[in-house]
Every structure is written in C-alpha cells, then in structure tokens.
Design brief:
about 425 residues, Immunoglobulin-like, Aminopeptidase, 6-stranded mixed sheet, 5-stranded mixed sheet, Membrane-bound Lytic Murein Transglycosylase D, Chain A
C-alpha cells in the first residue's frame, strides 16, 4: 500500500508539474499607432514572464517570453504610421520565445501585463515612446503666452474609448469608439470655422488614451473647455435619449448615473493602463482639488448643451446629471460628458450610424458651446471683444469681410441694413455673431 501510495503521489506531482509547465500560447497580436507612441498587445493563454531590452545598429527591441509559443504567427500589420519597420520571432532552444521589433528610431519601451477583464484575457502590453522626446508628466496648467493679445477660445474634444477599448457595442455591431470619433471630427470642423474658437482633438484616430492622460492633454493645450463624447449601452434595449453629465461633488445624481460612471471609468482596465498611470491620476487631479467655480461653470455649460440637444433628439433625463467620471476631474477646466444616445437601442444605433444625424448632433453641441460663451465671455479672448466692429478700408469687399469674421454675407447685410454690396471707405460695419 505504501508503494502504491507513493507511486500515486509521484504521478500526481508529475501531472501538476506538466500542467504548470504548459507553454503559454500567444493567441493574437494587435498594434495601435498613436501620435506620441505605438502600442503592441499580445493576447495570451496565461500570464507570462517576460524580459525587454533594446539593441542598436540598427535599432531593435527584443522581447523574450518565458516558455511561450506563437502558433499563429505575426499578423499583416500596416507599419506606415507606427514606430516599427517589422516584427520577427523565433523559438529559442530553452523553450522560450523571442520576438524582435525592428524600429524606425530609438525608443523608450514600457511593458506590463494585464489580468483578464470582461473584454479580454491575459495580455502583455508593450508601449514604445520616442527616445528623443521626454514623456509628458502631469504638471500644473502653464500660463498662456502673450497675455495682452486677444486669443481664440480653445475647446478640447474627447472622443471616448479607442484602440483596445471599443466602448459599448450596438445590436448591429456598431462600436462606440467609432461613432464618437466621427461626431468629434464633425464638431471640430464646425468649431474651427467659428470666429474666435479653436478645437483640439484628444484622440484623432483609433488608439487608446488613458483617462488621466486625456485630462492632461486638454490642460497642455490650454483648453478653456473639455467635452467628452460617448454613446453607451444599457441592459434594457428600450433605454434611449441623450444625457449630459458633470462631475459629482458627492454622490451620483442617480443609480443609473453611478452605474454609467463605473462603466466609463473601467476604460483604463479594458484599454490597458499600468498601475503607474493610475498613480499619476491620484497625484494629479484629486476630487478635493476641484474648484467650486469650475463645477458651477461646468453645470452652466452642460445646461446650455442639453437645451440644444433637446431640439434634435429625445433626452434621457431633462436635467444635467452628476457622477464620478474620472475623465471630468480637471481642477480648472469646465468639463462635461455627453452621452449622445444609447447605442444598445436599435433605433438610436441606426441614427448614430447616419451621417446626417451625426451632423445634427455636432451642430447642436456647437450651439450649446456658443450659447455658453456668449453668456460667459472669457477675458482676453476675441469673443470677449464685444461689440465687434470693422472699419472699411480701401479694397475691402463684403465677401472678404464675411470670410474673415466667419459669418455669412447675408448676416452682414442684415446686421448693417445693407441693400447691396457697395461699401464706403471709413464706414464702420457691425459684425454679428454667426447664427445670431
């Protein structure tokens, strides 16, 4: 009996050892080029021990994966917008897997592993940053140059999700990250045509940006306003309508708002953020840093945007809601989050896919922003220089003046009682606001 028991124990240990030693399978790879980095993601069958180091002449990054295999090979990536020239791999004699990234330039790599979440299994993330450029660090909002000169108002447009984080997905497979980027681009074009306004995009393509980095990028751009665009899902397909949120100083305004904020805040986990970046957020924008005036300004902005959305789409709630969205935690930039629709609702999903409806949403958002700044002109900006006047100079034409101030010729005529396009040198024209 002793011999039989010992044999059984040995067999058990052998089975356990064999299971533990099973090679980790690289089940897939994804690449996400961004303006300031390139991200490479390995989908794995289990956690992996890895080592990363760089080589020069030419520049390469070597990734050694302990006890791993890559049965599917490397996908046919388009490397044009990335920091890579190509990817090679080969098994090593000790059972490890070596992956070599051929680089276009010297990089500063960062790697970390992620545990499974509701979207993905085990992952190894490799982030590549240009070695010639220092990584941006959280810092106080810098003062503007030339404080005496009138300037444009800067509006940061944040298209939610991106890259590994698709956001919510509609019944027809529409991804939130795609439709919000499309509306964001439409909104940017409209804002850039407005006199005295300029838009900056937090995310310009399909790549992931961490929540704290979104806030930081807006502040680095000296944004006067931050608007984050989303189209979430709910467990009931009947849920519908637009909502506008600001950061909650305490509890969320409703259970649904709290649930939504928790879902949006999970973006870092899904998209892939290391613990270091999470620590940066805590150091950078704690809730108790939030100024009361910023909350008040955010609420007024949200109210103006909600009022304009009401004209083109049903509202989920007829008032501004509040919740603990991490992406709204800038201490000195009025910030709102717009849920344009429920992508889980089949009817609203169809609308979100429609270019005309996207254009209507963008115009409504612009009207809300315009309304806010008309009531709250920022000192030192071109919009604060009211009333606007233009002294006609020799060679001026009505169409050139209209183009310069981004208004229509018809609006110029109406504002000045002109019956034709004849101009008198020295006469002062009143310049209306576009759409007024």
């Amino acid at each position: 009996m002793r011999a039989a028991g010992l044999l059984a124990g040995v067999l058990f240990l052998c089975a356990v050892t064999s299971a533990v030693a099973a090679p980790v399978q690289v089940q897939g790879m994804r690449m996400w080029p961004a303006p300031d980095n390139t991200r490479l993601v390995f989908d794995l069958s289990a956690p992996v021990v890895h080592q990363v180091f760089t080589l020069t002449g030419p520049d390469r990054l070597v990734i050694d994966l302990k006890n791993a295999r890559m049965p599917g090979g490397v996908p046919a990536f388009d490397y044009a917008a990335s920091m890579l020239r190509g990817i090679r791999y080969a098994p090593r004699g000790d059972g490890d897997l070596r992956v070599v990234l051929d680089l276009k330039k010297s990089v500063k790599p960062r790697s970390f592993v992620l545990k499974p979440n509701r979207e993905y299994g085990h992952r190894l993330v490799i982030d590549l940053y240009d070695a010639a450029k220092p990584r941006a660090q959280p810092r106080p909002r810098a003062p503007r140059a030339d404080p005496g000169r009138p300037r444009d108002i800067v509006i940061a447009i944040d298209a939610g999700h991106g890259g590994d984080d698709p956001g919510a997905i509609g019944p027809r497979g529409t991804r939130e990250k795609d439709v919000v980027l499309q509306v964001a681009k439409r909104l940017k074009r409209l804002i850039d045509r407005e006199y005295g306004m300029r838009a900056v995009m937090i995310r310009e393509g399909d790549y992931f940006v961490g929540l704290s980095r979104r806030v930081q990028k807006a502040r680095e751009a000296h944004a006067d306003l931050f608007i984050s665009l989303h189209a979430d899902a709910f467990d009931r397909a009947s849920a519908h309508g637009s909502s506008v949120y600001i950061l909650a100083e305490g509890n969320a305004s409703s259970d649904a708002a709290r649930w939504l904020a928790e879902n949006e805040n999970a973006s870092d986990v899904i998209g892939g953020v290391s613990l270091v970046e999470k620590d940066d957020l805590l150091k950078y924008v704690l809730v108790d840093m939030m100024k009361a005036s910023t909350i008040q300004d955010s609420h007024q902005l949200a109210s103006d945007v909600l009022a304009k959305l009401k004209g083109i789409t049903p509202l989920h709630k007829p008032y501004v809601e509040q919740a603990g969205f991490r992406v709204l935690r800038s201490p000195d930039v009025p910030s709102i989050l717009v849920e344009m629709a429920f992508i889980s609702n089949p009817k609203e999903e169809r609308k979100l896919r429609n270019g005309r409806h996207q254009a209507k949403l963008a115009r409504a958002l612009l009207r809300g922003i315009r309304s806010y700044f008309r009531k709250n002109p920022l000192e030192g900006t071109l919009l604060a220089a009211r009333p606007r006047r233009h002294v006609i100079a020799r060679g001026d034409t009505l169409s050139e003046i209209a183009s310069r101030y981004r208004v229509s010729v018809g609006e110029l005529r109406a504002a000045n009682g002109l019956k034709n396009d004849v101009l008198v040198v020295g006469k002062v024209l009143r310049i209306p606001w576009a759409g007024s």
